[in-house]
Design a protein that fits this description.
This protein has 115 residues and is α+β, with helices and mostly antiparallel strands. The chain is built from one helix and five strands; from the N terminus they run βββββα. The protein has two domains: 5-57, no CATH class; 69-109. The radius of gyration is 29 Å and the shape is elongated.
Length: 115
Amino acid sequence: MAASNVYLEGGPCDGRTVSANKIVGGLTAYIKCGGGYYVLDDGVTRPNGDVVFKYAGKTKPEPPSGGGVHDSHALHGWNDLRHVVNHDTRPALLYSQRTTAAALRRLGHARKVGR
């Protein structure tokens, strides 16, 4: 994060600006202030460049649940992509090349205009 200051919005520390060095947490970056927790507001920044953290309540934010990188839907998507590249792309490319060659042959035999 390039910003050196964080603007806290809502909760007990509303309107306070703190150093970005106070950000803690892993996947869920947060700042603790005034007995409450503040989390990143989807990359919102103020005109002066301060990053905005919104009040998230008195409960410590937890990392999002789910499979993350090992999500089964992501793996299915990867398998689908591999199938398309390995099985469907080559025949489509060969068909395209055949039809282009046939069209060029046909144009070669067509009557020329303007000679």
